[in-house]
Structures are given as C-alpha cells and as structure tokens.
Structure to design on (220 residues):
C-alpha cells in the first residue's frame, strides 16, 4: 500500500524548485520521502541516490553533506510552512474571546492534534531531527519569541487577573501548557503512532490536569 502524501509539496517550499537541475530536484524529493519514513540517521546517501535514480556523487555535488541536505529540507519546512501555518492558526485562537481558561486550552489542544494528524509524516521528521540540530531549534525559538509569545503572555495574564491562574512566572505557566501539549503529540507522532488512542478521553484528562495545576491554591 503506498504511503500517504507527505503534505506540502517541494514546489511550495522552494519558490525556484522548478528551476533547479532535474537531478537536484529528484534528490530533494527522495530525501524528503526517506527522511520522513525512516529518519535521518537510518537513511544513507546511497539510499537517497537509488531512490532518486542518480549517482551518489551527484548528491555531494549539490550538497556538501547529508546534514546540509537535511537542513535545506527541514529549515523551510519549519520556518516557511509549519511555523507560519501554526502561527496563523494559533493567533486565530488567541484572537477569540474565551470566557474561561479551559475554553482556550481546549481550543489549543484540539487544534494541535488536528494539525498533527494533517501533517503526521512531516512532523515526525521535524520532531526526530530538530533536537539533533541546534541551528533548527534556535531558528524556531527566535520565531516563537517574536511572533507568538506576546499573544500567549497577554492571554495568560488576563486569566491571572480573573483568578483562573495562580500567581506564577509566565515562563512556568507556559512550560506547563507546552508540556501537556507535547505529552499528547510526541506519543502520537513518534512513540505509538498506531496505538488505538481514545482521543476525547485523552483531551479531557489533559485539560483536567492542566486546569488543576494552574488553578489558584484553595484558601485555608
């Protein structure tokens, strides 16, 4: 059975993709497919060359190393496709009025899970490799700090004034929320992608844990 489509095409990632030499286009396409399927470490340049129908030496003519090939694929995936798409979707949630913290957190959880299911194989590649290549993680952190953090901080401070979040540093609250999000996403994408998840039960359990963890302490 053939693999499902990878998601965004290379044409959408590289505005000049069609102008690249045919061999380079085939190498990029084959590398994206194999990295997403098998992971970076388990994919050899020989396997990429075979899948692309080119000599292995042609890879090193266009890319200095396998790592450079990965970075040329992963950087635009992160910074030109996934992060801007995520940014727009999360900002749309942040722009809405949420009467209770639970409404905001539930909207974020459901949106992130939908995003994961839509881009499952490419996200698997990104999550597998981003921790091994600090330059990718640094780029993502810079984008987050400038484009997303202010909106999230404004929302969390609002719920603090509403006594729905106890007094704590913004970084602590954000860490708790991101930990819960990743606790749903990482097992689904990396660890147990074929597990029969009870998605609704997992969402509700995560929400309950988060709300209780962020709530003001009961007065004696």
């Amino acid at each position: 059975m053939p693999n499902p489509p990878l998601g965004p095409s290379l044409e959408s990632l590289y505005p000049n993709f069609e102008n690249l030499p045919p061999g380079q286009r085939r190498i990029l396409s084959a590398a994206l497919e194999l990295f997403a399927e098998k992971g970076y470490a388990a994919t050899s340049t020989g396997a990429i060359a075979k899948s692309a129908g080119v000599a292995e030496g042609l890879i090193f003519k266009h890319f200095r190393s396998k790592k450079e090939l990965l970075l040329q694929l992963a950087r635009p995936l992160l910074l030109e496709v996934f992060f801007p798409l995520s940014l727009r979707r999360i900002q749309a949630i942040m722009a809405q009025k949420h009467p209770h913290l639970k409404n905001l957190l539930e909207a974020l959880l459901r949106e992130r899970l939908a995003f994961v299911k839509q881009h499952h194989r490419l996200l698997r590649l990104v999550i597998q490799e981003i921790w091994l290549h600090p330059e990718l993680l640094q780029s993502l952190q810079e984008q987050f700090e400038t484009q997303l953090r202010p909106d999230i901080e404004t929302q969390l401070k609002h719920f603090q004034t509403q006594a729905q979040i106890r007094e704590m540093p913004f970084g602590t609250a954000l860490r708790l929320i991101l930990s819960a999000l990743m606790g749903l996403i990482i097992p689904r994408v990396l660890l147990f992608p074929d597990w029969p998840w009870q998605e609704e039960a997992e969402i509700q359990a995560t929400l309950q844990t988060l709300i209780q963890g962020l709530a003001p302490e009961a007065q004696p």
